[in-house]
Amino acid sequence: MEVRSVYKYARISPKKARDVAREIQGLPVSDAIDTLNFTPKKAAFLIGKTLKSAVANAENNHDLAADSLQVKEANICDGPSFRRFKPRARGSASAIKKRTSHIYIILTDEGGEEKAPSKRGKSSEKRPVAKTEKVEEEAASEEEAASEESATDGVEAAPVAEDQVDEVSVDSSQEASDQSPDEGAGVEEVIEEPPTAEEASEEEEQKD
Known about the structure:
Blueprint: E1 2-10, H1 14-24, H2 29-37, H3 42-61, E2 70-78, E3 82-87, E4 93-98, E5 101-108, H4 119-155, H5 162-178, H6 197-207
Antiparallel strand pairs: 1-5, 2-5, 3-4
């Protein structure tokens, strides 16, 4: 919320008052009052009265705390000038202007307003986000394909090379040759003896 206070027809020139008004613009109320109290100028006294009036308006009319207020604007506008004359040589007269000022003080209880981002900024911010999402999706699909390939490789039997087959056959032949004759003693050998003369004659009779 904004609170205003106006001091019209202040008897000071706008040029002198603007030098002091620039010092308090944008400051918290407490800092602005301290600055004006330690500024030895007439403009500081007049602007201080206007500032205290604005703080009183905020507290009494809008129920705002003085600690939360900030000087948003401190403007000095030109007021009407009083024309006076001073006698000069040979009966002439020169004009003198008594200038006045209008002091405007605006207080606010809101912090620094953030500027809304422009359309160009929004478009430039959105584009890299879309690109990153696409890159993440591609990386995820590649990881899934790699995991599937690794699973299939574990299931399939590995092919046996020809060199390995030759080594297996050579090893088996060596083992067979390395066996001693004592190891084959357990096998019964059948030896056929030649038939005797009596048996041979009996066989011939049976055939006849």
